[in-house]
């Protein structure tokens, strides 16, 4: 597991496993968001397995599966709600952390400059430049 902080209270990670949950708690996270659809992965790392481990460790667990190339407004709203309702740092994961970065940026459209929403994930190798127009459009309202 590699935790990649985008802000002080939001980080992304590639796919995690139930045995990663203690380290996530130790790192200070209070909310765990799964952005990976179960159809992409084997049962032992699907949402329900992670949910059980997360909730047993006292983490809030949010399921918001994001399909690559098909991000919906519901995905964006669900991510924004998870961020707003988190009572501490939030860790979101998917296959690589890219989709979790994209929905973070889209959820913050209009709250932060577009250049910043693209540059912050880029520090971790996530290329959000193709989403510039969408971020700008969402920022307009």
TrEMBL record:
Gene3D superfamilies: Protein tyrosine phosphatase superfamily. InterPro entries: BLH_phosphatase-like, Prot-tyrosine_phosphatase-like. GO terms for molecular function: hydrolase activity. Residues 3-110 form the Beta-lactamase hydrolase-like protein phosphatase-like domain. It comes from the Bacteria. It holds the Pfam family BLH_phosphatase. NCBIfam families: TIGR01244 family sulfur transferase (TIGR01244). This is TIGR01244 family phosphatase. It comes from Roseinatronobacter bogoriensis subsp. barguzinensis.
